[in-house]
Structures are given as structure tokens and as C-alpha cells.
Design brief:
heterodimer; A: mainly alpha; about 70% helix; B: Non-ribosomal Peptide Synthetase Peptidyl Carrier Protein, Chain A
Chain lengths: ~500, ~90
């Protein structure tokens, strides 16, 4: 079951109805949420539920230990305080070992064994380390980071430990975000789960619009553009010409945004129906005029996590990493690449973005030195040509870096990259008229979505929202009818689910 | 070294590194969020923290090392001047 499945369309209204019929007590509401979240997870693969249960139990145990072994004050230098600090550190290490160990086992063991076998073979040794064929537990990359963030915050004293097992388990397994985020922070989600939720009209309106937006993004845009323009070219790059390659690349940029952004909107909308607010995960990334800005707008919760828990403590810390901004950036993006999957191409993608961030940082330092000398450079930076060029360069870089992200192997990266310049004559053909219309509508929808965010058109959306409710309702109704008529139910799988 | 001196130091640093004479205008009021108003991004915060540590020879508590705790001029000045090791410019 996923958020766009027919099964979910049946189950969710049932859960929604019972949820709001229950007495407004957090324990009742959380019990229902937890039960449905486990059913949701169980429906993917029953054998993987114990993995989630064990992961939750370990971190609840660590959290309880930290709660009962309070950190001594910074100026307490007694032996007892030192012992308590040590014990807390061991608890943190236990959580790290379990969480990273589980990720390494399920996600990377096969990749490392295969790579090692290949390297040894290249050196003339015919070793054959057993390559594990383990099923990747769904959402493990997301819920592991969410739990680790919580444990770091509790360890550092930024967050009160959650003492309720029911609230903690719901925090980890909350179904809208369990499979593909957004990655919530304990400080944001736990207080909401600990308090009883009240039904408010505003939540329903926000939930409905976010859910509808997510559904259109996923079921219409992503599932139309992927199979028609992207998949054929990436599966046989040599058969297609440069125009088809560029179209596939732009199409993939639209697809991956609509797919993952769409899932995030669906998750946020679902949670909103239940009175829970999840963090924003995408904030119009294709309007960004620099790479740092791009990463503040794309998969926001993952990037904030990486910067808050890896970059900031290292680069602003006291060891070797202190002040080593470039090394910190490279580490963050290599980690991001590895987080996305056990593939060399993801590491290449991470290295490209890490390098891009470093180049941007040095360019920025250089340009600022010009600004200090001559204020005309400040004005130049604000000019339309500079901003347009900055936007174009940022988006072009992101586009090119998508090649290793999408390609399944290094061979495809090479063939596809060459195909952008020279190659065959082929062009994807869309035989059905309805599919052609869907492609055009998909591009128009994404363009419109971005356009209304531009200052010149920003008022349009506000004006639409100010229209009388029946008119807005009629428009939403027409969209829903159109979706039912033209968009197949049971959309394909989400790209980010695999991570 | 007074509160207004620390305030001046931070504004000068913002001018030197990011806003080139516009920092005061962009900041507007001392409780205005740096992050929400594009005055400083999260990468810039790390640089500012390193600069404050080096300038005032203070050690900012890593547990409080979060843009959210330093997200306005007023919060930064209050933190620095309230730091137990703060003695002004070393």
C-alpha cells in the first residue's frame, strides 16, 4: 500500500473517520495511528516489520537510559560526573552502531562485497566474498535518520527525552512519512503527538490542497513524463539523438521533482488531515540562483539533517575539521550520495555536488573581495543579467548532475553523456493522443506551479484563493474528475521509496 | 567592550562578508530573523560562529550550536556578552 494506491484510498477515509470519532485523547489517537502505521508497513512486506520494531525498541531503550542518566553540568568535574558522561556517550555509541550497522547491512553489504570482489579480481585474486541478497527494509534510510537526529538532540540536551513508549513508536512509524519522509525532528513532531489533536476546518483545507497537489504531481506529472520521455532514452541511449537526450534529461528533472516533491506533498497533506504538521520538504528548488540556495530548497529535511548533524559540529568544532569548509561540504555531499544508494553513480553525483558547492564557495569569496573594492559589483550582482545567468548555471549544473543520479551504471552515464552531443536519430514517439495531451498538461502544470511563485504572477494564486468557496470547489472538482478519467489508478512506485 | 560594541562587530562582519554596507538596513530591528530574511544562511552561521570564537576567545557551547539559537542580532549579542569567558576583544 502506498499513498496513491486504491487500497489506501479505501483505508484512509476509514482511519480518518474513526480518528475523529474517537474521544480527543492523545493515547486513543496515537494507538489508532500506530496500529494503522504498522498495518501500512506490514502491507509492503510482513517480514520487515520486526526490523522496524527492533530499531524502535533499541532507540527507545537508549532514550530511556539518557533520560535516567541526566547529563551533569559543564563545570562539574567530579568522578561521578565523568562516569555519567562516559555512560551517556556509550549509550549514544550503541545507538550509532545499531542504526548505522543496520543501514550498512541492509543497504551496503552487497555493494561493498561486490566491489571488493571486483577489485581483488582486477589484482589477480579470485576471492569470492558472499554477496548478500537482502531485501532492503522500506523507509530504513528515512526512519534511521529521524531516530538518530532524535538521539543526538536528546544526548546534547537540546530535546527532552520522550518517556512515552506509545508517542515514541508513533513518532518513528507515523505512516505518511514512514516510507519516504519528510524526515521530521523530534522537537517538532513529538510535542504534536503528545497532545490531543482537535479537528479544525483550516487543517482539512490545507490537507486537501496539499494532497491534491501531491497526487497531481505524482500520478499525472511523474507517471506520464517518466515512461514516455525519460525511460526509453535512458534504457537505450545509443538509439536516440541529442534532442531526445536533452528532452529526457529535462523530463527527468521534472519527473524526479514531481515524484519526490509529490510524495512529500501527499505525506504533508495526509498528516494535516490528522491534525499533524510535517515540515516542508521542497520550496520551489527550480527557482534557485545558486547551489547553496538549491540545497536549502530541495529535500530540505535531509539536507538540514546533514548540515546540522555532520557539517556544523565538524566544521565549527575543535578538531582537524575546524574551519575546513571545503572538506565539510565534500563530506556532506558524499554522505548524501551514499545515503541515496549503494551505487558508484550516486557517489559520483554526491562528489559532483560537493565539488560544485566548493567551486561556488570560492567564487563567492572572490566576488565578495570585488564588492569590498568597488560597490558597483554589489549592484551588478543584483542586476537581471547576473541573476539570470546565476539561475541558468545553477539549473544546468543540477541537470547535468542528474545523469549519474538516474543512470543505473557507469556505462549508461558515458553513453548518455556522449548522446547529448552526438548519436542516433531516434526520438521518443507517443502514439496515443491522450498520452500526448497528458505530457503537455504535465509540463504546463509544473510550469504554472513555478510561475505563480514569481513576483510578477504571485498575486494570481492569492486571487484564486480569494474566490468564493463554491467556485474554488468547482475548480478542484473538475481537476479531480479529470484525474479520475485520465490518470490510471495504482500509480507506479515512488523513485525515493528505493532509498 | 559593551553590548553596542559587539553589535557593531557583528554588523561590520556582515558588511565585510555579505552585505557591503547594507547590513544595517537589511537587519532593520535586532530581533529580525537572519535566516528568514536572507541576512545569513546556515553556511554563513558557521563562519560567524568561528569568527566570534576567534575574536572574543570564547567557546560556544556545541549543544547550542544551532542557527535557531543565533538567528537574530539581538540573540547573538546577548549570547556573546553573556558568555562566562567574555572579556571583550582579546
Amino acid at each position: 500500500m502506498s499513498l496513491v494506491d486504491v487500497d489506501f484510498a479505501f483505508w484512509f477515509p476509514v482511519v480518518f473517520g474513526i480518528y475523529w470519532l474517537l474521544p480527543r485523547k492523545a493515547s486513543y489517537q496515537n494507538t489508532l495511528l500506530l496500529g494503522f502505521s504498522y498495518l501500512f508497513y506490514f502491507s509492503w512486506n510482513p517480514r520487515l516489520l520486526p526490523v522496524l520494531l527492533l530499531a524502535t525498541a533499541v532507540d527507545y531503550g537508549v532514550s530511556e537510559y539518557l533520560a535516567t542518566h541526566v547529563a551533569p553540568s559543564a563545570d562539574d568535574s567530579s568522578a561521578e560526573a565523568a562516569g555519567r558522561r562516559r555512560a551517556r556517550r556509550y549509550a549514544l555509541i550503541l545507538s550509532l552502531i545499531y542504526n548505522l550497522g543496520a543501514l550498512a547491512y541492509f543497504k551496503y553489504a552487497g555493494f561493498f562485497a561486490e566491489s571488493l570482489n571486483r577489485q581483488l579480481a582486477a589484482l589477480g585474486f579470485h576471492a569470492s566474498l558472499p554477496v548478500l541478497q537482502v531485501v532492503l527494509p522500506l523507509g530504513i534510510s528515512f526512519y534511521t535518520l529521524q531516530k538518530l537526529g532524535y538521539i543526538f538532540d536528546v544526548y546534547r540536551g537540546r530535546l527532552e527525552p520522550c518517556r512515552s513508549l506509545l508517542v515514541f513508536t508513533t513518532f518513528v512509524a507515523f505512516f505518511p512519512q514512514l516510507i519516504a519522509g519528510p524526515i521530521s525532528r523530534g522537537s517538532q513532531l513529538i510535542p504534536q503527538l503528545a497532545a490531543p489533536r482537535q479537528l479544525r476546518e483550516r487543517q482539512l483545507v490545507e490537507g486537501a490542497s496539499s494532497f491534491l497537489l501531491g497526487y497531481v504531481m505524482k500520478a499525472l506529472v511523474a507517471d506520464t513524463i517518466g515512461p514516455t520521455l525519460v525511460d526509453p532514452v535512458f534504457s537505450q541511449p545509443a538509439a536516440y539523438g541529442p534532442a531526445a537526450h536533452w528532452l529526457a534529461l529535462v523530463g527527468y528533472a521534472v519527473q524526479v521533482f514531481a515524484d519526490f516533491g509529490g510524495y512529500s506533498f501527499l505525506a504533508i497533506g495526509c498528516a494535516r488531515f490528522l491534525g499533524i504538521e510535517l515540515p516542508v520538504n521542497f520550496d520551489y528548488p527550480y527557482l534557485s540562483k545558486s547551489l547553496p540556495e538549491f540545497w536549502r530548497r530541495w529535500h530540505i529535511t535531509l539536507n538540514r539533517w546533514l548540515f546540522d548533524y555532520i557539517y556544523d559540529p565538524l566544521v565549527a568544532g575543535s578538531g582537524w575539521w575546524r574551519g575546513r569548509f571545503d572538506a565539510g561540504l565534500l563530506l556532506v555531499f558524499l554522505t548524501s550520495g551514499l545515503w541515496h544508494g549503494a551505487r558508484v553513480t550516486f557517489l559520483v553525483w554526491g562528489a559532483m555536488h560537493g565539488t560544485g558547492m566548493i567551486v561556488h564557495r570560492h567564487w563567492d569569496e572572490f566576488y565578495r573581495s570585488l564588492c569590498r573594492r568597488d560597490r558597483a559589483y554589489v549592484e551588478r550582482r543584483r542586476s537581471v543579467p547576473y541573476r539570470t545567468m546565476a539561475w541558468a548555471l545553477t539549473q544546468f549544473f543540477f541537470l547535468v548532475a542528474l545523469i549519474p543520479f538516474r543512470a543505473g551504471s557507469w556505462g549508461v552515464v558515458q553513453t548518455f553523456s556522449a548522446g547529448l552531443l552526438v548519436g542516433g536519430q531516434g526520438f521518443p514517439t507517443i502514439t496515443q493522443a491522450a498520452a500526448r495531451v497528458s505530457v503537455i498538461v504535465s509540463f504546463a502544470f509544473v510550469a504554472g506551479y513555478y510561475l505563480v511563485k514569481l513576483p510578477r504572477f504571485e498575486g494570481w494564486w492569492a486571487r484564486f484563493q480569494a474566490l468564493p468557496a463554491p467556485i474554488r470547489g468547482a475548480v478542484y472538482g473538475l481537476v479531480a474528475v479529470w484525474l479520475l478519467l485520465f490518470v490510471p489508478l495504482n500509480a507506479t512506485t515512488f523513485i525515493y521509496r528505493q532509498f | 567592550m559593551t553590548t553596542s560594541d559587539v553589535r557593531r562587530t557583528v554588523v561590520d562582519w556582515l558588511d565585510d562578508n555579505y552585505h557591503f554596507g547594507d547590513a544595517e538596513r537589511l537587519i532593520g530591528s535586532d530581533d529580525r530573523s537572519f535566516l528568514e530574511n536572507g541576512i545569513l544562511d546556515s553556511l554563513g552561521f558557521v563562519k560567524l560562529i568561528l569568527y566570534l570564537e576567534d575574536t572574543y576567545k570564547i567557546k560556544i557551547d556545541r549543544n547550542q550550536l544551532s542557527p535557531r539559537n543565533f538567528d537574530s542580532l539581538g540573540l547573538i549579542v546577548r549570547y556573546v556578552t553573556g558568555h562566562r569567558d567574555y572579556r571583550g576583544v582579546a
